[in-house]
Specification:
Layout lengths: L2 H14 L20 E11 L2 E2 L1 H8 L1 E8 L3 E7 L4 E14 L2 E7 L15 H10 L5 H10 L7 E8 L3 E14 L1 H6 L15 E14 L5 E13 L5 E12 L16 H19 L1
């Protein structure tokens, strides 16, 4: 698996998997554009306070193009810098979750509908589902799997919905961590490709992840991951083991509109003035 897939896909799949939904019979409102290029970039990657994003920026850059959509979902194509990576689709269908029917995405939700079926505000609806993770079977599976890597003592999944974003948030804490999970997450960083070695003794491990969708368009906007922990090496040297990731939709910088002054009005006014003054001169003669 490539480094970019490990870094971005792992937490994406984790948080996405905590959310499901299904439509009724009414029009669906999508906020994205067909055939538009939506480019996602790795803007920040630091480990031990060392900036590393430049090492992965090109291969982590992905371009998404939506090909088509209907009342239940959409199809899209994923490109990297040089070629096509995948052609796939996502649908939003009724799904039974513990005797409750929810409208959930089947496939990776690169974009959420703004409205679907009888759900007039799907972003709010989706946020409420994220907040109901106590009843999510997937969360139980996640906790069961992650305990192989860490002594998990705190886990919280919740959403925040405002005028800018719908954010899915994951917070966890573990007093001790098996370093193999970080080795997998950080890929080749521990194999000599980059001079960063993963410590084998990690304690006080805190992870905060946020996955945000644009509240206006429904598009996946950004993913941020923050790791704060303490490491001890083989010589009993203690240091802060921190890591930060920021992966987000590229947005061109907005430039202030330049004000251009038009002097086109001078010409007709000058003609009028010259013509009037010539008549006045003739009259006086």
């Amino acid at each position: 698996m490539k480094r970019k897939e490990i870094i971005t896909s792992g937490v994406l799949i984790l948080i996405f998997s905590l959310t499901f939904v299904s439509p009724a019979n009414a029009a669906t409102n999508w906020g994205f554009e067909i055939d538009e290029n939506y480019v996602y970039e790795l803007n920040k990657l630091t480990v031990f306070e060392t900036p590393l994003a430049f090492e992965f920026k090109d291969e982590a850059r992905l371009r998404i193009v939506f090909n088509d959509f209907n009342d239940t979902g959409y199809s899209y194509t994923v490109y990297n810098e040089t070629h096509l990576l995948a052609e796939t689709s996502t649908v939003f269908l009724p799904t039974e979750v513990e005797s409750e029917t929810l409208v959930l995405p089947q496939g990776l939700p690169i974009a959420l509908p703004l409205a679907i079926g009888e759900i007039s505000d799907y972003m709010e609806y989706f946020g409420l589902i994220i907040n109901q993770t106590v009843s999510m079977i997937v969360l139980d599976d996640f906790v069961e799997n992650i305990t192989d890597y860490m002594d998990l003592t705190y886990l919280n999944v919740y959403s925040v919905y405002d005028t800018n974003f719908l954010s899915a948030n994951l917070d966890l804490f573990a007093p001790t961590v098996n370093a193999s999970i970080l080795t997998e997450l950080l890929g080749e960083m521990d194999s000599g490709a980059i001079p960063i070695s993963i410590p084998t003794n990690i304690t006080d491990f805190k992870l905060n992840a946020t996955l945000a969708f644009d509240a206006t368009t429904g598009l996946f906007d950004h993913l941020t991951i923050k790791i704060r922990s303490i490491s001890t090496d083989e010589f009993n040297y203690v240091d802060n083991f921190n890591a930060d990731v920021e992966y987000e939709l590229y947005k061109p910088e907005e430039t202030e509109p330049t004000t251009t002054v038009s002097y086109a009005w001078i010409v007709p006014i000058a003609v009028v003035v010259i013509f009037a003054s010539s008549l006045f001169t003739r009259k006086r003669k």
